[in-house]
Amino acid sequence: MVRSPVDSRAAHALAEVEMARLVPVADWAVEVFGKHCPHRNTLLNWIRDGKIVPPPKKIGHRYFCAPDASYEDPVASQLERMIGGR
């Protein structure tokens, strides 16, 4: 059986949708920080400053990120390296 290019593109698009589940940044923050979740303005600052890795995507008027995204502060990690001597 020979697949047409349309079928393979549809299968590829379906695979991408299944792999790339994004969650709203506010929901991610609740999941990661619980009841001590930061304010939405803080989340927007983190997005702007690149502190959420991998970076969230803006879709429409909202930001979405991968469920396994993490908060990383480059200044804090640099200080840790300087203090730790590495």
TrEMBL record:
Keyword entries, A-Z: DNA recombination, DNA-binding
Molecular functions (GO terms): DNA binding
An annotated GO BP: DNA recombination
Keyword Zinc-finger in record: no
InterPro entries tied to this protein: DNA-bd_dom_put_sf, Excisionase-like, Excisionase-like_sf
Residue ranges annotated for the Excisionase-like domain, each copy included: 25-74
Gene3D superfamilies: 1.10.1660.20
Superkingdom as given in the UniProt entry: Bacteria
Keyword Cytoplasm found: no
Pfam families reported in the protein's UniProt record: Exc
Name this polypeptide is given: Excisionase-like protein
Source species: Caballeronia temeraria
